Amino acid sequence: MNSEQFRAAAHSAIDQIIDYHDNIESRRVVSNVSPGYLKPLLPPGPPANPEPWADIQADIESKILPGITHWQNPNFLAFFPANSSYPGILGELYSATFNSANFNWLCSPAATELETIVLDWLARLLNLPECFLSTSKNGGGGVIQGSASEAVCTVIVAARERYLRALAAAGKSPEESEEIVDNNRSKLVALFSDQTHSSTQKGCQIAGVKHHSIKVTGSATENYVLTGPLLRKSLEELTAKGLHPFFLTVTLGTTATCATDDFASIASVLKDYPNVWVHVDAAFAGAALILPQYQHIPAPFENFDSFDMNMHKWLLTNFDCSCLYVKTRKYLHDALSITPSYLRNPFSEQGMVTDYRDWQIPLGRRFRALKVWFVMRSYGVSGLQGHIWNSLRHGASFAQWVRDRSDIFVIVAPPSFALTVFAVKSESREESNRLTGIVYEAVNADGQIFITSTVIDGIYAIRVVGGGPKIREEVLKRAFDILVRKTEEVLKAGVN
Ligand code: PLP
């Protein structure tokens, strides 16, 4: 494809992308193809000779779109959102254009420097404590990772190294230090509540450390929150067994019910356990911190070691863009920095620059800061706040409609951050679980809206979450009416 062919192809692709976005509501939100649908539609191998773009582009509509679940469709109310925006798409386009690998500053100074700048902008916007800024005296800062899972795995490795190095310092010789590390490595244990996203457990599996899940309880009026006293009990039990608690994930916006752990009481307990690295997983709900009413939440984070939120979930930035902040970047370097001769350069050697390869698992990295910059400038703080505020307003309306139909629905956990978790009302838990399951399956099979379910403490529940920029109150009301209709049908069939 030469430049003139690219110009024509790109114009045509952009037109198709705009049409896709403008008409997305007319598409069935969830793909209903059967597994293996694509293979019979494609030839057994690549074409022997070049094909014109028009033929390739035509296959988007006929072969790919049937297998797409439309996350940008306002009828997508499942999982958590994955916002896309035109400025975000433009950021991806330029990133693909430069296609630099960006592992060291020298690979493209703009990529590194823009990332540091926009992550400091974001930290201020989220009202994170000063210690997470790149300019902080303690040597903190932010880095864009591919996902919240990658971020937590990265900080588990840093925490493990920090803990083991502290133990090793007690050795009187290198051999003794090595022996201490060898004897204790298998005793390291990470903690989290049973509502914490599974990515922390996966990170522990990758890092080869033990993990311990703390059971939390909740109800329609009290969310499933990890508290200081619950944490203390587990810390004492694990320590009594000779284990070394070294890491804790706390969550702002758990996946099932969007609970916010009790950060202040957790921070107070951890004064007695200063070697535990605390990571705040705010993957979805962290975006809400840009609103004034939530800006008090991050104050206790100054006692913690790392914080992560996904701009690619609820903050209008295309996937992937997980923003990880650490209080002391040295600990990432200690765990992850290796400098073979082919990565050496005078700027890095003299410590004049940031090399983000030392803050992450992979070496190469995409120029993701561009889309953050484009999004922040195109929307402005007021536009970003307006988007989050709209989602919260719509979420509150939805929760109220559910409450208003207390004859058929029960709220399972307090509605939080645009998420409502509810079940079909019934005399017994078993019957409620059965009926909720039937309603859930029937609504998704019908395909007008897409929702997810969850099981909390043995309760089978439906999760409805907004957050997409195209969601409007009337779209959510229609979704609610679909849920009511299906529930009434199921209840009627159950009674007869
Ligand atoms: N943490 C929480 C609270 C989540 O809800 C999710 C996913 O929804 C994750 C982590 C994992 O996110 P990612 O897909 O960026 O790894």
TrEMBL record:
Modified residues (N6-(pyridoxal phosphate)lysine): K313
Keywords: Decarboxylase, Lyase, Pyridoxal phosphate, Transferase
Gene3D superfamilies from the UniProt entry: Aspartate Aminotransferase, domain 1, dopa decarboxylase, N-terminal domain, Type I PLP-dependent aspartate aminotransferase-like (Major domain)
Gene Ontology, cellular component aspect: cytoplasm
Source species, domain of life: Eukaryota
GO molecular function: carboxy-lyase activity; pyridoxal phosphate binding; transferase activity
Cofactor field: pyridoxal 5'-phosphate
An individual GO BP term: amino acid metabolic process
Signal peptide: none
InterPro entries: Aromatic_deC (IPR010977), PyrdxlP-dep_de-COase (IPR002129), PyrdxlP-dep_Trfase (IPR015424), PyrdxlP-dep_Trfase_major (IPR015421), PyrdxlP-dep_Trfase_small (IPR015422), Pyridoxal-P_BS (IPR021115)
Keyword Lyase: yes
Family label: Belongs to the group II decarboxylase family.
Cross-referenced PANTHER family: GROUP II PYRIDOXAL-5-PHOSPHATE DECARBOXYLASE (PTHR11999), MIP05841P (PTHR11999:SF70)
Designated name of the protein: PLP-dependent transferase
Organism of derivation: Choiromyces venosus 120613-1
